[in-house]
Write a structure and sequence with these properties.
Elements: H1 8-22, E1 27-31, H2 35-45, E2 51-55, H3 58-67, E3 73-77, H4 85-92, E4 103-107, H5 113-122, E5 124-129, H6 134-227, H7 234-267, E6 274-277, H8 278-295, E7 299-302, E8 309-312, H9 314-330, E9 337-345, E10 348-355, H10 362-366, E11 376-377, E12 383-384, H11 387-398, E13 403-408, E14 412-420
Parallel strand pairs: 1-2, 1-3, 3-4, 4-5, 7-9
Antiparallel strand pairs: 6-8, 9-10, 10-14, 11-12, 13-14
Helix pairs in contact: 1-6, 3-4, 6-7, 6-8, 6-9, 8-9, 9-11
Length: 424
C-alpha cells in the first residue's frame, strides 16, 4: 500500500474538483427587447438556482459577452429591432470562445420551416414559441443545464487525467533516473571491488615471490647452522650468523615496505614513481638472492651503469627484478650465470635479464603471460604458478613499458622490459 501513497493526493484533488464542477451555478443570458418577457423568463427559472444576465437588444447582449464568456445557455428573442436574433447569433458565434454556448431562440411568429432552418444555420440548438409554456421552458433549460455540467465535468476530468499522466510521466522519469544512478553506483562499486580484488592478488603475489626466496635462503642457512654447529669453525659460525642477520633484516624491510605499499594501493590505487638509481636496485635484489644462486653455484653479474636512473615505483621495480632473477636462477643448471644489463632507449630504459638456463620452446613462450590459473614449467621439470610473470607484466604495463622474451631450448633465456628513464 505504501508504494501507492504518492497517487492519493491526485485522486483526492480529482474528487474535490468533481464536486465543485457539479455545484457550479448555471449562468444564463436572457435577451429580449421587452422587459416583461425578460422578467417572465427569470421568474419561471429562478427557483432552479440559475444565475441570470439580461439584455434588451442584440447589441447589449454582445457587450455583455465581450466581458463574460462563461455562460451555460443563451435564451435569445428572434424579433428585435435594429439587430434581430439571427444576426445576433451569427455575431456571437464569430468569437471562438463563444462557439460552444448553446442558443435557444424564443419566437412568436417565425415558426415556419424556412425560418427554423435559418435559425439552425445561425447556430440555434432549439426553439421555444411565445407565449411559452413555463414547464416546457424549465424542462428544456434543465436539459442544457445538465449537459453543460456534464461537459464541464468531462473537461475537468480530461484536465485531471492530463495532469495525472504528466505526474506519472515525471514519476517514471524520476524512477528511471534513480535506477540509472543506482546502476551507475553499483557498477562503480563492482569496479572498486574488482580493483580491490586485483590489488589483493598482487599483494599476495608480491609476498609469495618477493619473500619466499629470501626465506628459503634463511631457512637453509639456519638448518646448516643447527645441523653442523659442532663442526663449524668460529669464522664459519660468524659468516652464517651474518647471513641470517642480513637476510632477516632485508625480509623485515621488504615486509614493512610491502605493508606501506598495500596501504597506498588501497587509498590511491596508482603506482607512485620516483627517481631511482637502477644499479642500486639491482644490487639489493642480488643481495637477497645470492644465497639461492650460491646453492647452485650460479654467478650473478650486475652490468648496469651507475649513471642510469629510472622513474619507477620502488616496490614494483624490485618485484619485477626479483621475479625475473628468481626465475632465471630456478631454470639455470648448476654452474650457470645470470647477467643483468640496461640501455637507455629514447625516453625509456631497456633492462635485460639473461640466463644460461634450459631455455624454452615457442609453445612455452606463448603461454608465459596467460592467466595464472595455468601452470608454467621449464624443461628441467621445475614448475611455478605463473603468478610472478603475470605480476611482472602488470607492473611493467603500469609504468607504460613493454616486456618480451627471447629464448632457445638448451641455450638460455633473455627477458627484456622497459621502464621510464629519469631525464633530470
Amino acid at each position: 500500500m505504501a508504494k501507492c501513497r504518492w497517487f492519493y493526493p491526485s485522486l483526492l484533488k480529482f474528487k474535490l474538483n468533481r464536486r465543485s464542477v457539479i455545484s457550479e451555478t448555471i449562468k444564463i443570458l436572457l435577451v429580449d427587447d421587452r422587459e416583461d418577457n425578460l422578467m417572465s423568463m427569470e421568474v419561471v427559472l429562478e427557483k432552479e438556482g440559475y444565475s441570470f444576465s439580461k439584455a434588451l437588444s442584440g447589441k447589449e447582449a454582445l457587450k455583455i459577452l465581450l466581458k463574460e464568456d462563461d455562460f451555460s445557455l443563451i435564451l435569445l428573442d428572434v424579433k428585435m429591432p435594429i439587430m434581430d436574433g439571427y444576426e445576433t447569433a451569427e455575431l456571437i458565434y464569430q468569437r471562438e470562445k463563444l462557439k460552444n454556448i448553446p442558443i435557444i431562440f424564443i419566437t412568436g411568429q417565425d415558426y415556419e420551416e424556412t425560418n427554423i432552418f435559418k435559425g439552425y444555420q445561425a447556430g440555434a440548438v432549439d426553439y421555444i414559441r411565445k407565449p411559452f409554456n413555463p414547464q416546457i421552458l424549465r424542462s428544456k433549460v434543465a436539459v442544457f443545464a445538465e449537459l453543460h455540467k456534464k461537459n464541464q465535468l468531462l473537461k475537468r476530468t480530461e484536465e485531471e487525467l492530463r495532469k495525472t499522466n504528466e505526474d506519472l510521466l515525471k514519476l517514471n522519469q524520476e524512477l528511471e533516473s534513480r535506477v540509472k544512478e543506482r546502476t551507475i553506483e553499483l557498477e562503480d562499486l563492482n569496479k572498486e571491488l574488482q580493483d580491490l580484488n586485483k590489488s589483493k592478488d598482487k599483494i599476495l603475489s608480491v609476498i609469495s615471490h618477493d619473500l619466499r626466496n629470501p626465506f628459503t635462503a634463511l631457512l637453509a642457512s639456519s638448518e646448516k647452522l643447527n645441523r653442523d654447529f659442532a663442526k663449524l669453525k668460529p669464522a664459519e659460525l660468524q659468516n652464517f650468523s651474518q647471513i641470517i642477520y642480513r637476510t632477516s633484516k632485508k625480509i623485515l624491510d621488504q615486509l614493512n615496505e610491502l605493508v606501506e605499499w598495500a596501504k597506498n594501493q588501497r587509498e590511491k590505487p596508482n603506482f607512485n614513481p620516483s627517481k631511482l638509481q637502477l644499479i642500486k636496485g639491482m644490487n639489493e635484489s642480488f643481495e637477497l638472492l645470492k644465497n639461492n644462486a650460491a646453492h647452485k653455484e650460479i654467478k650473478l653479474e650486475n652490468k648496469v651503469s651507475e649513471d642510469i636512473y629510472v622513474n619507477a615505483d620502488a616496490l614494483m621495480l624490485r618485484s619485477i627484478l626479483q621475479n625475473l632473477i628468481t626465475n632465471a636462477i630456478k631454470f639455470t643448471p648448476q654452474g650457470g650465470s645470470v647477467i643483468v644489463t640496461a640501455e637507455p632507449t629514447e625516453s625509456m630504459v631497456e633492462v635485460c635479464v639473461v640466463d644460461t638456463g634450459v631455455g624454452m620452446d615457442k609453445d612455452m613462450k606463448d603461454r608465459l603471460f596467460i592467466e595464472a590459473s595455468q601452470s608454467i614449467s621449464g624443461t628441467n621439470n621445475e614448475q611455478g604458478s605463473g603468478l610472478g610473470l603475470l605480476l611482472v607484466r602488470d607492473f611493467v604495463i603500469q609504468h607504460g613499458g613493454t616486456i618480451q622474451v627471447e629464448s632457445e631450448v638448451g641455450k638460455g633465456t633473455c627477458f627484456k622490459f622497459t621502464v621510464p628513464a629519469c631525464l633530470n
